[in-house]
Design the sequence.
C-alpha cells in the first residue's frame, strides 16, 4: 500500500431530501439504509480500506456528528476526524483537509469521497481510484470520476469529455461542466454520448489542489493559508474555529472544477448511485413483481405499484391503492407522497421546522 | 338517584376494524380517540354517572383488560368488574351481568351500554335512559334505543317500529329486526321512515331479561342458572370460569331481541356514532376545507382530500396526493388505504397475525 495516498471522506451533510429517514441528528450517511448492519459511511470506509490504510483516512464532518462518527468508526484515530464549526459546503472542507494532509505529508495524493453513495462494483471502484491516483501523482492534474448516464437525470452535474489523456485509456480532458441541466438539455447530453454524470469523487495531490485554490479561489485560499506549523498540531482546532466560519459557502465544483484548465475525467462503471433522493434509492433497489421496493421493513400491499416503502425500526405497513408513491416512516415523522414530488421534500422539511419545531426534522 | 338502577358497560371488544389504533392489548374503548384526555370508556362512565352511581356501574370485560380498567376507572370498585375468561359475544356477557345484579338486587333495572360509542348530546342521552328505565320498570319489557338513520349504512342493524306504547311518546313496539341489510334494502329502510339504527343500548329489569333468556335462549339460561347464592359471592369467579367458556358465542340481538315478543324501541337523537370503523370516525369528526380529518396529530398536506389522518403519539405526517384515504399510524404499525377499503381491515389484521406475529396486532 502506497503510504502517500490519503482518502478524505466528507460526512457532514444533512441529507434533507431523505427526510424523514435522514434527520438532523442522524443524517443519511449514518443510517443502515440497506439493512446490511452497516451505515453508508461504514460501507464507504470498508470500500476504500483495501487501498488506503485506516491511518490515512481523514473524515471531515460537522462538529455535531463527532460522537456518532467515533461510535461508527472506532478504527479511525481521533486526530483524523476534522470537525467543521459551521456548514460551508464542500470547497472550504476540501481546502482544509488538503492543508491538513499536506502538513502531514507534502507528497500526499488524495481521493475525496462522499460518505453516502452506493457503489455496487467495489473492485472496479478500487481499480479506478488506484489508476486515478497514479494519474494525478504524475502531473499537476485535477481528476473527477464520471459515470455513464443511463437517463436524462436533471438532478446531477454533467461533465463533457474532451481529448484523451496519453497513456490512460479511461481518462480524458474535461471540456465543460454543467450543473443540473433542464430536461431538454439533459436529453441532448444523453444522446450525444459525450457527457458523464459527476459522481463527486475527486482525485489530486495535496499540492495540486492547494495550487488550484490559490489560482481559482483566492478568497478561500487566503483564509486557510496559515503557517504549515498550524496544521496537524494542537493549534489547528482554534485556528479553524476562527477561520472556517468566515469562508463563503460554495461547492468545489463552482470554486475550482468549473474554472480550472487542468481538469480530467475518468469514466467508470461502478454500479453507482448517489442515493440523493428517494427515487435514486428506488432505482438502486430490487423490486418485487408489482414494482414495489421494501426497504428494510414488513409490508402487506394490495393494489400498490411502483411504490417505495421504507421504515426505521421493526414496524409493519399495510397499504392499498398506492401507485408510484414514497412511504417513509421514521421515528416521529411519516412521509407519504408521489415519487414525482420528491424534489419538494427539502422545502417541506423547512416548513416543518418553522411550524412544528426542530424535533421533527 | 334511584338505587335500583344499574348500568352494565360492555368493554371486552377487540375493535379490530380500528387497527392499528385499536390493538389486542389496548382496544379502541381504552384509547383517547379525540384527544380529550379521556378514553371512550371513561367518557362512557362520565356520561352515565349523573343518573347511575359508581357503585351501580358494572363493567364486563375480558380478563386481559382487568389492569387497564382498574387504571382508567379507579372509582369503580373491584367487585363491580366482571372478568370474562373467554370471548363469547354479547349474549352470555349480558346474561352473567343480569344474574350478578339480580343477586345483589332482585328489583334492579339495567341499562346496558357499549363502551366505545360516541354520544354528543349527553343531556338527551340521560333523559332517554331515565325515561326508558322508567318504561321497563313498569312491565315485562325489553327496550332498545333506535337512532334516526341519516344514510343507508349497511354496517348497522335496523329496527322497524310498530305501534306506539301508551304513555311514552318516543317508545313503540318493535315490528322487526334486520342485521346489516344490503344497500338496496338499506335505501328502502331509509325512505320508509319506519326504520331506526340499532344503537346496541338495551334497557330492562334484571328479572325481565333473565326471563327472556329462559324463554328464547334456554341453552345459555341453563348454563348460568346457578343457585342465587353463587352470584355476588367469592364463589362466582370459579363458577364463571367453568361455565362461561361453554356458552355459544352469540349476540344479544340474535339470542333474544329478534325472537322476543315484548321488545320496544325508544327513538332518540343523541348525536350518536358507533365509531365502528374509520369511516364512522371520519363522519363524526370536524373536517377542514379540503374535507380532511386530523385526529390528534400534526399534519402537513398538499393535494389531499377527504382523508382521515390519525396518529398515536406526537408525530408529524407529511402527505401529498391522497384522496379519500385512511392514514393511521400507531406504534409498530401503519395503515394507508382507501376509505372504501375499510371493511377489509379486519381480515388484514388476521393475515398480519399469521404472517408477522401477535406483536403487530
Sequence:
Amino acid at each position: 500500500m502506497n503510504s502517500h495516498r490519503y482518502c478524505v471522506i466528507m460526512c457532514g451533510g444533512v441529507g434533507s431530501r431523505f427526510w424523514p429517514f435522514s434527520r438532523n441528528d442522524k443524517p443519511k450517511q449514518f443510517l443502515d439504509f440497506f439493512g446490511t448492519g452497516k451505515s453508508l459511511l461504514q460501507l464507504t470506509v470498508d470500500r476504500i480500506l483495501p487501498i488506503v490504510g485506516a491511518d490515512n483516512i481523514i473524515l471531515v464532518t460537522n462538529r455535531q456528528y463527532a460522537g456518532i462518527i467515533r461510535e461508527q468508526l472506532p478504527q479511525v484515530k481521533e486526530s483524523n476526524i476534522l470537525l467543521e464549526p459551521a456548514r460551508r459546503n464542500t470547497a472550504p472542507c476540501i481546502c482544509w483537509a488538503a492543508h491538513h494532509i499536506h502538513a502531514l505529508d507534502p507528497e500526499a495524493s488524495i481521493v475525496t469521497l462522499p460518505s453516502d453513495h452506493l457503489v455496487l462494483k467495489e473492485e472496479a471502484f478500487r481499480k479506478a481510484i488506484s489508476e486515478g491516483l497514479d494519474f494525478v501523482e504524475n502531473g499537476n492534474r485535477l481528476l473527477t470520476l464520471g459515470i455513464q448516464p443511463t437517463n436524462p437525470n436533471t438532478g446531477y452535474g454533467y461533465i463533457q469529455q474532451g481529448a484523451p489523456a496519453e497513456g490512460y485509456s479511461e481518462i480524458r480532458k474535461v471540456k465543460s461542466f454543467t450543473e443540473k441541466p433542464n430536461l431538454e438539455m439533459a436529453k441532448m447530453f444523453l444522446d450525444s454520448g459525450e457527457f458523464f454524470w459527476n459522481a463527486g469523487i475527486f482525485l489530486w495531490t495535496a499540492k495540486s489542489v492547494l495550487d488550484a485554490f490559490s489560482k481559482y479561489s483566492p478568497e478561500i485560499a487566503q483564509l486557510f493559508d496559515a503557517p504549515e506549523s498550524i496544521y496537524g498540531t494542537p493549534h489547528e482546532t482554534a485556528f479553524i474555529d476562527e477561520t472556517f466560519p468566515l469562508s463563503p459557502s460554495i461547492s468545489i465544483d463552482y470554486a475550482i472544477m468549473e474554472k480550472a484548465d487542468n481538469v480530467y475525467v475518468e469514466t467508470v462503471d461502478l454500479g453507482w448511485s448517489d442515493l440523493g433522493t428517494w427515487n435514486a434509492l428506488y432505482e438502486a433497489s430490487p423490486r418485487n413483481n408489482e414494482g414495489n421496493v421494501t426497504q428494510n421493513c414488513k409490508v402487506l400491499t394490495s393494489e400498490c405499484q411502483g411504490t417505495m416503502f421504507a421504515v426505521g425500526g421493526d414496524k409493519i405497513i399495510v397499504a392499498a391503492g398506492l401507485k408510484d408513491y414514497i412511504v417513509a416512516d421514521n421515528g416521529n415523522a411519516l412521509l407519504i407522497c408521489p415519487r414525482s414530488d420528491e424534489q419538494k421534500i427539502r422545502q417541506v422539511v423547512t416548513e416543518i421546522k418553522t411550524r412544528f419545531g426542530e424535533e421533527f426534522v
Remarks:
- Residues 91 and 313 of chain B are 36 Å apart (CA to CA).
